[in-house]
Amino acid sequence: MKRSEINQAILQAKALMAQYHFLLPKFARYSLTDWKTLDRAKHQEILEAHLGWDVTDFNLGQFATTGLTLFTIRNQSTHNHKPYAEKIMLVNENQVTPMHYH
């Protein structure tokens, strides 16, 4: 996917969440500069648990018809002792998310 497509998907997701008053954590709004200059020690859990935005077209190059935008709020890891994950997933109208596994 092109960076512009990813950025657009994230902007649309943020707008939809704001419309429904779903508040994301502060790091959801970090800019590239913020990520480059942040105090890694204070943000270790975010980095280790892979929290944040994911946008995928499942390597098909057709995000408008096959894709998924998600934001990981919490994620199980061996370091944080959280036995669950919390992810907000958005699929656009007329877009499908194929069966997949991790």
TrEMBL record:
Entry superkingdom: Bacteria
Pfam families, per database record: Lyx_isomer
EC number: 5.3.1.15
UniProt keyword annotation of Transmembrane helix present: no
Reaction catalysis annotation: D-lyxose = D-xylulose
InterPro entries: D-lyxose_isomer, RmlC-like_jellyroll
Keywords of the record: Carbohydrate metabolism, Isomerase, Manganese, Metal-binding, Sugar transport, Transport
GO molecular function, one term: D-lyxose ketol-isomerase activity
Gene3D superfamilies for the chain: Jelly Rolls
Keyword Manganese attributed: yes
Names of required cofactors: Mn(2+)
Parts of the chain that traverse the membrane: none
Similarity comment text for this entry: Belongs to the D-lyxose ketol-isomerase family.
UniProt-recorded name of the protein: D-lyxose ketol-isomerase
Source organism: Actinobacillus seminis
